[in-house]
Structure prediction request, 375 residues.
Amino acid sequence: MATEQAPLYIGLISGTSMDGVDAALVSLGAHRCNVRATLSAPYEPELRERLYAASREPAAFAVDRLGHLDHWVGEAFRDAALALLRDSGVPASAITAIGSHGQTVRHQPRAARPFTLQLGDPHIIAAGSGVTTVADFRRRDIALGGEGAPLAPAFHHWLWGKSERGTAVLNVGGFANLTILPADESAVSGFDTGPGNSLMDGWCARHLGKAYDEDGAWAASGKVSDALLEQLLGDEYFRRPAPKSTGFEHFNAAWLDAHLAAAGTLPAADVQATLCEFTARSIADALGRYAPQTERLLVCGGGAHNGQLLLRLAAKLPRATVQTTDAVGIGPDWVEAATFAWLAARCLNRETGNLPAVTGAREAAILGSIFPGRS
Prediction:
């Protein structure tokens, strides 16, 4: 007798680095996620430049310009999904749904009227691919008093929650977030620890003209400034209790420049070394405060490829094994895309997708809105 195949989903996301769309084709079973095919589709340079400007200079972006970008990002996400289907040889008819996170350009969960804004019109994805698309995952959580982020801990808990030893999952994108999975099966928790790659990438682009510091080599060549490091760690965000989330609305180039002005002139490589140490230290401090018994740290996101960052994390966490999520079956570049494939499945199955202990929402809720494919 033939066994029933696990349903197929596609997850799409572009993170705060705004470098393009990550797409993953996955099959989802009972607490199992099998990544079948992946694709990374870089944004056109002009699109990336305009998204940066929209996120860093929001007052300068009129409604027409945002509408234009919403359509353009929708096209980029649609094209990434179609390319993934073409390259994998899987027909669109075999896909249950696409989960599209979109591109965050503004995240203000603590404003007088809280909001979060992700661009990438899901109608364009659904109409262009013919596949039912689920999108707009964050706003229901905010409507319930939550931060709308991070959402990945619910997926981490579903997939890796049953562990014989204290495990934490660290996603290092533009910003870093932790999922804490205690061995005693107490409630899972998670939050944004602060900057991940964003400040390092920005400094690298400013001084080397490169998008990122490959393997952390430039940071390794510099010397950490203890004075600057303590200034950066003195930010009130690190004293704020969880649940909490952050983004480039708070930690950005202007924030860094203000601290640099107070610290005095430093060699550019020393600033990069200090920023790498800052990311590692803020993560380690968060683990020390909320999960001191952590025995294993699983790292995903672009930061998983920064060898210098991983070395500094390991040095600060001598009790924990630091390894990438390759060790548990999903490559570090695809965990977030898989998350939104899973959230699409949760939405279609009318199952909750947020964890109130993580986001601060009043209750667990079904996340996402459904946009039908071809009838």
